[in-house]
Amino acid sequence: APTEAGEHLLAHLDPAFEDIAAALDSLNRFRETPHGLVRINAPRNAIGLVLAPRFGELARDYPGITLEVVADEGFANIVEAGFDAGIRLGEDLQHGMRAVRVGPDLRLAIVATPADFRRQGRPGSPA
């Protein structure tokens, strides 16, 4: 059995322990549902083809997520620039990065008038 001093201390600490337990329980929402800011870097055409069709689904399924999408036609280092992810078309991948397919294979086509082909010649591949 606790001493009188122990009983006194416990009486004063018990509410604090209950507050701590309640605060820890309130953190469970952070484990159960994703939330916060997610920053994605992608070329404009990837935003239109891959991301935009999924915006509604993402907002519905993960209301706690705030998505920041930055259009970038360059090849920025997504980590140094503070992004969580980046979308790249093709197989270009910076050293140390991992790739996950997020869309279908895309085919590029060269489109021009016959007069343009006569004037410029036929390109060997899309630029």
Automatic annotation (TrEMBL):
Highest taxon listed in the record's lineage: Bacteria
SUPFAM superfamilies in alphabetical order: Periplasmic binding protein-like II
GO biological process, alphabetically ordered: DNA-templated transcription
Segments forming domain LysR substrate-binding: 32-123
GO function terms (MF aspect): DNA-binding transcription factor activity; sequence-specific DNA binding
InterPro entries: LysR-type_TF_proteobact-type (IPR058163), LysR_subst-bd (IPR005119)
Family to which this protein belongs: Belongs to the LysR transcriptional regulatory family.
Protein name: LysR family transcriptional regulator
Organism: Pseudomonas aeruginosa
